[in-house]
Design goal:
single chain, about 170 residues, alpha+beta, Alpha-D-Glucose-1,6-Bisphosphate, Chain A, domain 4, 7-stranded antiparallel sheet, 7 strands, about 25% helix, globular
Length: about 170
C-alpha cells in the first residue's frame, strides 16, 4: 500500500476524516492508495471549478489524456456524471458518486483489471483553500502499479494536485 500513513491507521490524516472511502476501497482494503494535501491561493469555488471543468484537464494536468464526458457539450462534471479519461496510460470509465458543489467531488471508476476511487475535498475561504485528494485502487492493474514503485500512486496524485494548484492560481492573475 502507498500513502502518507499506514493503510490500516483510521486515525491518520486523510484516512477517513475528510475523505469518504467506499467499502472495499478504503486504504485498509485497497491494493494501492495515496493521499495528497495542499494549500492553494484561491477561493474554494475557483479550485472546484477547475476540478469539474473536464474540458481543461488535458491542458492543466500533465498525466491526463483523452477525456470524454457522456453528455455531449457539457464539459463539466456534476452529480451522476459519467466520463472517461486516461491517466498515465491507464484508461478509466468513471461515474461521479459524490458531489457537493464547491466542496466535494468523488468518482468511482473501472478499467482493465482495476476498480478505483478518487475524491477531492476542498475547504477554506476567499483568500485560500485546503485541498485533500485521495485515490484507492484494487485489482491486478493496481498491484502492477504498486509493485515496481510503491510510491507511484502518490507521485501521480501529487502531480495532479500540483497541476490543480498551478491552474487555479494562474486563473487568478
Amino acid at each position: 500500500m502507498v500513502g502518507s500513513v499506514g493503510g490500516d491507521d483510521r486515525a491518520a490524516p486523510g484516512a477517513g476524516h475528510a475523505l469518504r472511502w467506499p467499502a472495499g476501497l478504503s486504504p485498509g482494503c485497497a491494493d494501492v492508495w495515496a493521499v495528497s494535501e495542499l494549500a492553494i491561493g484561491a477561493a474554494p469555488a475557483a479550485v472546484f471549478s477547475c476540478l469539474v471543468t473536464v474540458g481543461r484537464w488535458e491542458r492543466d494536468f500533465a498525466a491526463i489524456r483523452n477525456v470524454r464526458v457522456a453528455a455531449p457539450g457539457r464539459g463539466r462534471l456534476g452529480p451522476d456524471s459519467v466520463f472517461e479519461f486516461e491517466i498515465d496510460g491507464l484508461r478509466l470509465c468513471a461515474h461521479v458518486v459524490g458531489f457537493r458543489a464547491g466542496h466535494r467531488l468523488a468518482w468511482s471508476g473501472q478499467g482493465i483489471d482495476i476498480s478505483a476511487y478518487h475524491e477531492w475535498a476542498v475547504s477554506g475561504g476567499p483568500g485560500g483553500s485546503r485541498v485533500l485528494a485521495g485515490f484507492a485502487g484494487r485489482g491486478a492493474a493496481a498491484v502492477a502499479l504498486r509493485e515496481p514503485d510503491p510510491h507511484a500512486a502518490r507521485r501521480t496524485l501529487d502531480r495532479w494536485a500540483a497541476g490543480l494548484k498551478a491552474a487555479t492560481e494562474r486563473g487568478r492573475r
